[in-house]
Amino acid sequence: MPLAEENCLCSDPPLTLPVVIIGNGPSGICLSYLLSGYRPYLSPDGLHPNPILHSKLEEARQLSIPEQDLEYLSEGLEGRSSNPVAVLFDTLLHPNADFGYDYPPVLQWKLEEEHYIPHIVLGKGPPGGAWHDMEGSILTLSLGDWMELPGLKFKDWVSGKRRNIKSDRATPAEVAAYYKHYVKIMGIQRNFVDNTYVTSVARPYRDQEQADSHDSENGAPEEPCIDKENGEPMVKKNWEVHGYRRAADGSHQPFCLFAETVVLATGTFDEPARLEVPGEYLPFVSHSIAEFEEAVGKGRLNGAVDPVLIVGAGLTAADAILCAHNNNIPVIHVFRRRVNDPSLIFKQLPKKLYPEYHKVYHMMCTQLSTVASNLYPRYTSYPEHFVHSFKPDMKVVLQSNSGLKKVLKISMALVLIGSHPNLFFLKEQGRSLGHLPNQPITCKSNPVEIDPYTYESSKEPNLFALGPLVGDNFIRFLKGGALAITRCLELRQKKRHQLVESGSDDGVS
Fold first, then answer.
1. Positive or negative CA dihedral for 104, 107, 110, 114?
2. End residue of a domain, out of 360, 390, 417
3. Which of 6, 27, 336, 470 could form a disulfide with 265 if both were Cys (CB 3.0 to 4.6 A apart)?
4. Residue 43: alpha-carbon gap to chain centroid
């Protein structure tokens, strides 16, 4: 039976749960959907355009996808994720999407409640995570149907919400409402605990005698090790999760849970990335586009003002440039890369779907042509430059890759160079979990190192991660992590049941 939240958070002694998911954005929602017993099968009329993959699917048509060999199915597939199961699940849900095709999914979903794995999903706000905090009117990067989760087509849902559908792309407000509705209509709301803040996740040790007693009671052996100080055998306990829930009156209600498995689904929007240069903490330097939009809305940047400095070459920086351009605010745009760098996000977006971002890219290229630069007289770009420092007198010092420096007067600085996850609740902020030892976890340069077919941490047993934490920044691909984790946990559950059954057959308690 599903777990009632009041029993989970307020029980004494603390309840031990099979799975605790930290984060209630699309990653956590999708994983909860699969752990609740929803199973994808090859649909009766499903015909995948990749003949090799379709042949593999036909070999085990009677089995659900989580029951099959994901490594075998993923072999040879290519896509915009470095995680093979993410590419597999995406091509099953959106066949050949990157080639511009709109093929229907080849899967059908069945609810098989016998596959339910007890779990709870802890989130700071309502289901949807950071989508509830984003600007509500801008268009998202992805097509609306790429934002959807299994079992509920976004187009069908949004058609009853919009008066007229002019674009296949959705607004963050629509996406946030969709995720919140999804949790309710799929019947998985009982697994979610909102307004919950996790403050600590750790695995303490206890001595072998205590562990043996615990194992005989629960039938779940724990991980042994040796105490380095005295050589005594020690065992890692289950994960211990501490935090608090914010009540309606603003008070904090502490809680403690134990979990056999913890899944990190926190996303990467917690902490804005910083330049770490002198003067970055001066009051005119901001790391939030919302603060810029507020300044524009209140008219603080109207009239003959010094330019706004915008640092970064991603889509958030592009949104800020568009906002400034539409309000006749002069812009100085600084970014480290060449304008023809193939890794720029603008080069990966079709012009027809993303005309506003291609307009920004055209502006970025104007400094190469005197004629073209006349098109945007209030915009100046500095490719292959970086910020050396900010000065208290509202000036910025730029430096080129060749070492030349330039001092410019500005009215405001916007540093929009991405964001990092905040894993403060883990030991050393989770630095030991990444590909680069002892470095902060980042979605691009240092994601959590995982087994590619289970999404279990390579450094910490029974700790899983998915979504941006493992480099899957597009919602299309985070669903593969949910599939891999579900399969792994199901296999372990089956193995545990087999051990219990064989033990009882032998007369062992």
1. negative
2. 417
3. 27
4. 29
CB 85 within 8 A of CB 91: no
SS3 for 224?
strand
| Structural domain of 363 | 274-417
Strand partners, 464: 263, 456
H/E stretch holding 332 reads strand 331-335
Write the CB contacts of 281 (distance below 8 Å, at least 6 apart in sequence): none
CA 508/CA 503 separation, integer angstroms: 5
The whole-number average pLDDT for the span 225-233 is: 48
Q: Among residues 500, 402, 477, 483, which one has the least CA distance to residue 78? A: 477
Structure tokens at 139: 């268009």
Burial classification of residue 92, based on how many CB atoms lie within 10 Å of its CB (0-12 exposed, 13-18 middle, 19 or more buried): buried
Those residues whose C-beta lies under 8 Å from the C-beta of residue 421, and which sit 6 or more positions away, are 266, 267, 268, 270, 271, 430, 441, 442, 443, 468, 469
Q: How many CB atoms lie within 10 A of CB 494?
A: 10
Tokens of 504: 């009882």
Residue 230 has pLDDT above 50, yes or no: no
> Do the beta carbons of residue 88 and residue 74 sit within 8 Å?
yes
Rg of the chain taking only CA atoms, in angstroms: 25
Helix/strand/coil (H/E/C) assignment for every residue in 248-307: CCCCEEEEEEEEEEEEECCCCCCEECCCCCCCCCCCCEECCHHHHHHHHHCCCCCCCCCC
Tell me the CATH number at 373: 3.50.50.60
Q: What is the pLDDT of residues 257-287, one digit of tens each?
A: 999 999 999 987 667 889 999 999 999 999 9
pLDDT tens-place string over residues 182-207: 999 999 999 999 999 999 999 986 54
Can you list the alpha helix ranges (DSSP code H) found in 342-454? 355-365, 370-373
Write the CATH number for 36: 3.50.50
In this prediction the pTM is 0.79
Domain shared by 348 and 484, yes or no = no
Tally the C-alpha atoms within 13 A of residue 34's C-alpha that lie toward its C-beta.
29
Q: Coil, strand or helix: which one is 58?
A: helix
**Measured between alpha carbons, how far is 493 from 181 in angstroms, rounded to an integer?**
30
Q: Cβ–Cβ contacts within 10 Å for residue 297, how many?
A: 11
**Cα–Cα dist 53/47, whole Å:** 10
